[in-house]
Amino acid sequence: METAENQHALSPAEIQHTLASIEIPVCPVLVTQVMAEFQKESPDLAVATRLIAADVGMSAFTLKLANSPFFRRGDATNSVAQAVTRLGSRNIVCVVVAAALRTSMSSDLSPEFLERFWTQASNVATAAGLIARKLRGISSDSAYTYALFHDAAIPVMMRRFPDYAELVEYAGKNAQDLPPLESKRYRCTHAIVGGLLAKNWLLPQNIVIAIRHHHDPEAFDPKLNIVSDEVRALIAIAHVAEKLSAEVLGEAAMETGQLCDLATEYLGLHEDDQQDLRDDLADALL
Question: What is the pTM of this model?
């Protein structure tokens, strides 16, 4: 029996045709400079601090993240240098990419939409990081970064297609998975565009692959070997994080149904486990 996903499977030619018409935001020089520093054998946090401090938006985002429930330890800080030290090298990459992506989209989309979008993304990322901390062998930093960016192509799609917001709203109200609807209407999906965006912006390869496959039910079948165990875990955590954070905040989750059930089963989270996570999230998010 064919699923909706299979009925609207995209050929490489269809994907390339659509991608040619979608403007992927260019990775700024500041991002490449910070990335280059952290690709060194011994990266210098002082270099990253100087680069971030020179950009007002980047500084604000760094301080906000460092003082967020997921990273805050002790008193709040208003020092970029202290914030950089608190976050560490892995999370500085997350800071510069998120701030630069947000800035690159600000001229085309309403500030109100972007604020809601990135706030929701930040809440899901916090939830993902907290869930990863409860599970053995899964990096909470990677879970946070992946969850923050896994839907980053939604604003990109919104810039390209005037009716895209309506499709997203329709999918949410009718509890339908978004990619089959995207495939049918646009011959592309936010997962495909998101993978390309993450690759162009030099995010780690495991996060690029997770974004590309985060709506593929087959990714949860180890026998198919579509993704690695690490990538599968990231995808699962983000699905559960979105569901639980939405429940705690009284919001509508974008991704529920089969994928969330598969994710919960893969992670072995029983209802008691999920309730414990809800309680932790309530402390962090409310």
Answer: 0.84
